[in-house]
Amino acid sequence: MSGASGTPYAAAVLRALLAAGESVDLVVSRASRLTLLDETGISFRDGHWREDLRAWLALGADGKPGTFDVPVDAVRHWSAGDLAAGPSSGSYPSKGMLIVPASTACVAGVALGLSKDLLQRAASVVLKERRRLVVAVRETPLNGQTLRHLVTLDDAGATVLPASPAFYAGATHIQDLVDFVAGRVLDAAGVGHTLYRRWEGELGGAPRPA
Length: 210
Known about the structure:
7 helices, three-stranded parallel sheet, two-stranded parallel sheet, alpha/beta, Rossmann fold, 39% helix
């Protein structure tokens, strides 16, 4: 997680990864902790990260508690300042990396190979190891410099995935729109899910249910 607005997207992706039986190495940047506090009222603390993560993942996109019950035993948390962490090395096993949400500052750091924190370093490792990197950029509008950084990431093999929800899947709640974006992130990562109704062509002028 980087510091862009959009913590419900990250929560939806995390819940779906755990539901799919995936283990997760979680890196929460310093800036994203401030965003998480602003958007949910939850402080993410290194010493109490399991409790804070459970409280956060229990929230729906509307901010109401008790919507979800998610076990977090398969999550391993790494401090963003820990450059000696497992994900900082190419020998550490992983299928890839998802940056959700991705701020323009994070995009720039990864595109330029700055590796100023564990989030950027882990992304650089994923790229050099030719693993999947999905960058769910959330900010808008995008200036020319950011667009060039995104092209650089695309050229390096990353999937650039703007957090742009679609409306053809019959969304009736904010959570439906959040889940659509989370589902597209998981699609790009090759992880199965049932977060949204897939388009199967038109039947009588209306989308066919999956």
